[in-house]
What does this fold into?
Amino acid sequence: MNESTELTASPLARRAAITRIAAAAAATMPLLAMPAHAHTDEPHSPKAGPVVKEQKDWGIAGDAKSAKRNIDVGMADNMRFTPARIEVRQGETVKFVVRNSGKVMHEFVIGTKAENGKHAEMMVKFPNMEHDEPYMAHVPPGKTGEIVWTFNRAGEFEFACLIAGHYQGGMVGAIMVTPAGKA
Ligand SMILES: [Cu+2]
It folds into this structure.
């Protein structure tokens, strides 16, 4: 069968030809065809509840075991985060450890400037609105919260406290995600 007959052949014949090509390729590359960790004693990653990892413009929920870096962030009643600017590399999974040293509740919410701004407005209108997403931590006074997040998209993002009045009071910081491949 030459190339032109392949192209004009019925879909079924074409699929059969593709299957033959794939089988031939697999036979010549047995090592690549086998998953690297197929026979280790490592257990399969446990499915811990229905955590939906939804791709957001600012990244996706990460696995704690993939986090190579912890970033400590302080939150205080003067409506400030410390530090107020964080730099990460695209592809990096970060564990944020956010500590509330104040006497009132604070939040750490990662998002785009547009998303956080919109959300902050809603919180002023409906202060008792509750949410829980993998990109937010609600931290009571004196407590510590954690978020593991994978920054798989480059760009300039924000972390903010969206409790009514806090965002408006300046409780916001910047997250700069450097594109992968750039020094
Ligand atoms: Cu706050």
